[in-house]
Specification:
alpha/beta; 4-stranded parallel β-sheet; globular
């Protein structure tokens, strides 16, 4: 299990190589979320994503001999770009195993940093099997996207920065996919500010850790059904589950329809286009079940949620579609296909953090008057988006 000192060490290790991203105030979301909203702009990172933190922390921890053997990872998204960049930075070879239906924006990002791409299947298990094969046969060092304590510790540095910028926070909420992000956050928070509560939120169609907590053991899901494609891991990692059990105060699930509503709110109120994966925490605040649990009117809640919109930046017509049609929020419509309006291609990866005021009871979400800090990532790339993959 990672410890607070591991996150502190990660912060010192990666500081010279990353951007200390700013915390931005976004009052347009205050009324809807019932709190003061801030954005921590992880889009200023070199790869436009927080995943750089964990990948760099792992890579910088390796010996010259290990780097000489090359790096490998199985990833379809920003972790792939993070590993490719880390290898580029350290003069190492990197093999990135991606799905055959990989998002072309992220595929181009990997190649930009010199990553050698292998396209393997469409299932995460197929990619993980190929990465393990490269470790066995070529002695390469794997950097796993979430099942690695050094990666989790690197992601946790985000929480340290949020607490440095907004020290009077009382609650931090994060989305859950594989569990590496929330493991790092929870460890950082409990070490730096133990009075701050940590909350995890995952899609109702992918309740790995919620069900694991209920059963008292890591579980494997028979199926995963959610529009939040970045959270579609089908099992609870044992190490991350141990951290979540020990340090995450509460777990919630949200239905996809509330994720869609949150995406629409973000675009119309804050003028930010984003995909579904980061939205579970704010959804918990807006869903009926979340409102029923509201107990605090003046706590400071921090919501780390990661949002990614890999695709075309829409023209005016498509923006109208995104506002009025929930299906268009998935990122692929006839407008994209036909290039309607000559819209320029642009990938946006967004992530959010929330941080809110004073003593907060053991309930999520925060209430009116809370102060919330979000972070977002924006990766400016030009390529079409073929739609979300499983």
């Amino acid at each position: 299990m990672i410890e607070y000192r591991d996150v502190q060490a990660a912060q010192a290790r990666i500081a010279p190589h990353i951007v200390r991203t700013p915390l931005l105030r976004v009052p347009a979301l205050d009324e809807a979320l019932g709190c003061q909203v801030y954005l921590k702009h992880e889009g200023f990172q070199t790869i436009g994503a927080f995943k750089l933190r964990g990948a760099l922390n792992k890579a910088l921890s390796l010996s010259e001999e290990e780097l000489g053997r090359g790096l490998v990872c199985a990833s379809s998204g920003n972790h792939a770009q993070g590993v490719a960049y880390a290898a580029h930075k350290l003069g190492a070879q990197a093999v990135i195993v991606m799905p055959t239906n990989a998002n072309p924006v992220k595929l181009a990002g990997v190649k930009r940093w010199g990553g050698q791409v292998e396209l393997v299947g469409t299932l995460s298990s197929q990619r993980e099997e190929r990465a393990a094969q490269l470790v066995r046969e070529r002695g390469m060092v794997e950097i796993h996207p979430y099942a690695d304590p050094l990666v989790a510790a690197g992601q946790g540095t985000l929480a340290l920065e949020v607490l440095e910028d907004l020290p009077d926070a009382s609650l931090i909420a994060a989305p859950i996919g594989g569990g590496g992000l929330i493991s790092g956050i929870a460890t950082a928070v409990k070490g730096a500010a133990p009075q701050v509560r940590t909350v995890g939120v995952e899609p109702a169609g992918a309740p790995r850790y919620t069900r694991s907590r209920a059963e008292g053991r890591p579980v494997q899901l028979e199926s995963v059904q959610t529009i939040a494609d970045g959270t579609r891991t089908d099992h609870a990692n044992p190490d991350n589950f141990a951290v979540i059990q020990a340090r995450v105060d509460e777990l919630y699930t949200v239905e996809d329809r509330w994720i869609e509503e949150a995406m629409r709110l973000l675009m119309t109120a804050a003028k930010v286009v984003a995909e579904p994966s980061p939205w579970p925490p704010p959804c918990a605040a807006r869903s009926p079940s979340g409102r029923r649990t509201r107990r605090c009117s003046s706590c400071r809640a921090a919501m780390p949620t990661r949002l990614c919109w890999p695709g075309c930046w829409p023209d005016g017509d498509l923006l109208c579609d995104l506002v009025t049609e929930g299906s268009a929020l998935l990122g692929y419509t006839e407008h994209n296909k036909q290039g309607r309006g000559g819209a320029a291609g642009c990938a946006m990866t967004s992530s959010f953090w929330g941080v809110a005021p004073q003593a907060c009871p053991r309930r999520w979400p925060p209430g009116a008057g809370t102060k919330v800090c979000w972070w977002w990532e924006t990766a400016g790339r030009t390529a079409p988006w073929p739609g979300p993959s499983g």
